[in-house]
Amino acid sequence: MTEEIKIAGIGIAPEVLSAIVSRAVEEVEGIATVGVRDIATNLVSMLSSKNVPAGPAVECSVVDEKLAITVHVTVFFGYPFKKLAESIREATAKAIDAQVGVEVESVDVCIDGLVFPKE
């Protein structure tokens, strides 16, 4: 387990915050996955002795007793990025407020992949 994030007098494992945010963001229309789940990366890992590391889906830090969150997503083609980012920010802030009870300073959205429909 990685080092706890200490905020509002409690220590929270980053994995717990990641689970809360991931669950909320997965429900946003237009989101394919939270984090990088690239088939090519998975195949390279399976077929070779190389383990291709994937970065964390959600990163959190504390800024002035508020959470600063970065969310990595893969999105479906056809959804405007700006609207998606706003929906992700809103869903993240609501989920953190409801479950953790702390204020969110910022939510940075990284669109790491795009899924095209099969034609």
UniProtKB/TrEMBL annotation:
It holds the Pfam family Asp23. InterPro entries: Asp23 (IPR005531). Belongs to the asp23 family. This is Asp23/Gls24 family envelope stress response protein. It comes from Collinsella tanakaei YIT 12063. The lineage of its organism: Bacteria, Bacillati, Actinomycetota, Coriobacteriia, Coriobacteriales.
